[in-house]
Amino acid sequence: NDNDAVFCLDFEFDDFKNTNPISIGICSLNQKHQFYREFDFPDNYAQVNDWVKENVIKHLQNNQKPLNEVFENLNRFLSDFSGKNIYLISDHNIDVSIMEKLKPQFSFPVTVMTIELYVYSYATQIYKHLDLKKDENYAKFEVTNSNILKSLEEYEDYFKTHNIIQHHALNDTVVMATLLERGINEKDNNRDI
User: Fold this and answer.
1) 148 CA to centre of own chain
2) What pTM did the predictor assign?
3) Model pLDDT for residues 51-69, shown as the tens digit of each residue
């Protein structure tokens, strides 16, 4: 839809209990618009566990900024799309939760959702557009969802086969956007309904 601006979203964070953001990555589905920032973090990451140190901290660019500065920059980045319906989609509920806490800082509406919910709503829009009812075409509806999500099953392998560092917020969103766009395009090109 030309009125939609869809971005993949990823936060790297300290742990599943505190969920303090370490970095944020945002990438449009066509990969043309990208945003990456690192957050100031207390005690220079002394309190994070060894896994986070090895898989996240090690790959930072050491250009940390205060939270308010990061979100001022993000607000400016997304303001280029403020006339559209802005969607930030993520593969994890914690990313959605972190963004929902910070979202009031935006000066325009932004919808944050998990990738499963986005794919479900995308499939629903196909059926609305074609004036079909889900209950009448349940099998085809589920195929629409699974075809799009199928390409995301390649997520872990994509990092390995393309030699990309995983658990870097921007890299994660670029891979997610690449695979999600591929799945949507394949579905659009092969639509049999």
Assistant:
1) 15
2) 0.80
3) 999 999 999 998 999 999 9
